[in-house]
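Annotated sample (chain length 447).
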Amino acid sequence: MSQFPLFNITRQTLEIEWQQCEDEGRIMNLHEREFRQLCAHDLNDPARQRKAEDFLDRTIQMPIRENFPYNEPSSLEEIRRQRGEAPALPPLKITDAELADKIEGAWLGRACGCLLGKPVEGWHRSRMHGYLKETKRFPLADYFSQKAAEPIRKKYEIDNEKPFIENVRIMPHDDDMDYTVAALEIIKKHGQDFSPEDVAKFWLENFAPLRLWTAERAAFRNFCMDVPPPQSAVFRNPWREWIGAQIRADLYGYVAPAQPERAAEFAWRDACISHVKNGIYGSMWVAAMISSAFAASDIPFIIRAGLAQIPAQSRLRDAISQVLKWREENVSYDEASERLHRLWDEKRAYDWCHVISNAMAVAIGLLWGEGDFERSICRAVQVCFDTDCNGATVGSIAGVIIGAKKIPYKWSKPLNDTLESSIACRGRLAISGLAKETLEAIEKIHK
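Output written by the structure step:
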């Protein structure tokens, strides 16, 4: 039993596990009575906590129903066997200077997109859209401002401590950026042969557990209990298909330009320590898209190149294919956003932070952004859900496509080429310096 409330199982934990098991296709009907009884009692009681732990240990073992329409492995070998045919990627024909510009564009674009979504992380559509409309800033086309009449500020609970653009002098600390820095450090130290265990060790040495959330915090706890990867991803981890691994993927695309399969493998090694199935696929999809964006600029092609690295019969691939179909049918951006919200309820924590809902938001931002940097990050954020994560991912891809020199000055200027990291070994960093370190890592990998 956990002796520290940080890791205690709560009613919400059990509810998330139940939904997760149902979505995985597990046969749960024999456990419904036990589930309801546990949720009805005080789980702070030590005896109840032990029963809740036992419940989580058993749910992960429940069989998948025979008529479940998906085949969703977590091992790299099985994932590769379940893929479809990949589109032919054009050869990489860029100069060293162009590669450097794209790498810096990736870092800078990620930071811009992250900063755009950061002050409104956790806002629902009614709050975000209401605030933008009442301040005459809808649709979103710039960083969020706290400047508004006092009645509007009060109505929308504007917090002066949040990173609205008036408060920004650099890219403030954010876990989305920390994970990208962490991946760079891992690649620099271990090269292309880094292992899941290397990632876990880096976390233990450099991350504070209170700066980790959901699946990442569960995995960190498991490392401390000598539960190694990949078991660390499933042991008492109801968040195993949430967005966490997807937001850690970008660097693996940066260091494998025009090599989507390799980028996806790197992402898998990172993702498998904390996630399974679609939680892993989101990471592989993002890394492969970023890798493909070095050689291609057509957005549907890039999205499909990413999908080619994950199982053909998976929920994530189905969901993103659905978004691609909406675009082909000339559905409007507003209607695409509305359809996403009909499928996923942003007011439920499970839906708000799941990898599939947020991957769909990323795809919407990319497809309806049509290659324009500003439009892409704004449309990824305006759709809501996990705004800083999705803005960052779309910013990475758009930044690779156009390069740092073409990112509009109004987006790059507030960052002052500086990023604040909470990783123990880094601190305050130059974004351009991170790009140079990434180029050095690429040279090391490709020697």
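Annotation: The chain has two domains: 5-59, 76-119+170-445.
Annotation: The radius of gyration is 21 Å.
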